[in-house]
Amino acid sequence: MKLAIQLLFLTALLILPFKASADIPGPHPGYLRALTDLRTARFLLARHHAGPRDHFAIDAIDRAINEIKKASIDDGKNLNDHPPVDTSLNDAGRFRRALELLDQAHQDIARFEDNVYAQGLQQRALRHIDEARHEVKRIVDDWR
To answer: DSSP of 114-132, one letter per residue?
Structure first.
């Protein structure tokens, strides 16, 4: 009986560090937030087509998501997995919200990156996000 209690105690000591670290985000929590923001912005843009600009923005968002995935910072969710979206937004509101999300994604990814390999991926992802931001800004300006 005493041996069983000791084994149970040792097992708990071995498992506890793994359980505690499961709730701690990995080394790139900003990238994971950016993925969520990019997926949501993509969804908002795909709900209403304003012409070739929104298609270009969606393609740029897809390229940014792929760059983040290449850096092995992938949460395994598909493109259509995103937080609930305010369905009461009109077209102009959706584009403005998409622009806000792209701005947030840019800020999250632009943080210091100490991994040399990931720096190139980071720069490419930022370039793609900026391309999408540029197109969405033009769409928003057209709605004014």
So the answer is: --HHHHHHHHHHHHHHHHH
- Quick check: pTM over 0.85? no
Percent of the chain with pLDDT over 90: 30
Within 10 A of 47 (CB to CB), how many other CB atoms are there?
14
Distance in angstroms (rounded) separating the CA atoms of residues 2 and 17: 24
Paired tokens of 25: 């985000």
CA dihedral 120, 121, 123, 125 (to 10 degrees): 170
CATH class, 27-143 region: mainly alpha
**Segments making up each domain of the chain, as ranges:** 27-143
Of 83 and 47, which is predicted with more confidence? 47
Q: What residue type is 18 in one-letter code?
A: F
Q: Which residues contact 44 (CB under 8 A, 6 or more apart)?
A: 85, 89, 94, 95, 97, 98, 101
